[in-house]
Task: structure prediction
Amino acid sequence: MYIPATEFTPLSALAGGVMIGLAAVWFLLSSGRIAGVSGIVSGLIPPFSPGVGVNLAFVAGLAISPIAYSVFPGGTPEQTMSSNLWLLGAAGMLVGFGSRLGSGCTSGHGVCGIARLSWRSIIATITFVATAMATVYVTRHMIGG
Result:
């Protein structure tokens, strides 16, 4: 969803970032593990990794959070996605492949890896952001989205 510059909300963005950071620290201190979503989700696929209960609770929290957020004034922003199941399936496969190829996802590298000053995570996050910027440019200015 495109958000015009007039709706820029730095305080809520800052609050959200702080909450994500605190949740990552809490997860690390309580479980001894990095809060990378791709690693946590892959631990739910057989053969199960140790801590499957923690993984289930983490993923359940991800699923429940938007529902809990919707009770606040303003609710959740409008979301749109393709109804083309082949496109969604291909996109999911590419995300999974990229997470495996990059040894982690944006949450693991961007939130936790950079906080630990991991060069691998810093380079991975720069790559994620540069690719996202190029994708937005191509879809908005070259394809005419």
Remarks:
- Residues 5-142 form one domain.
- The first helix runs from residue 10 to 31.
- The CA atoms of residues 84 and 90 lie 10 Å apart.
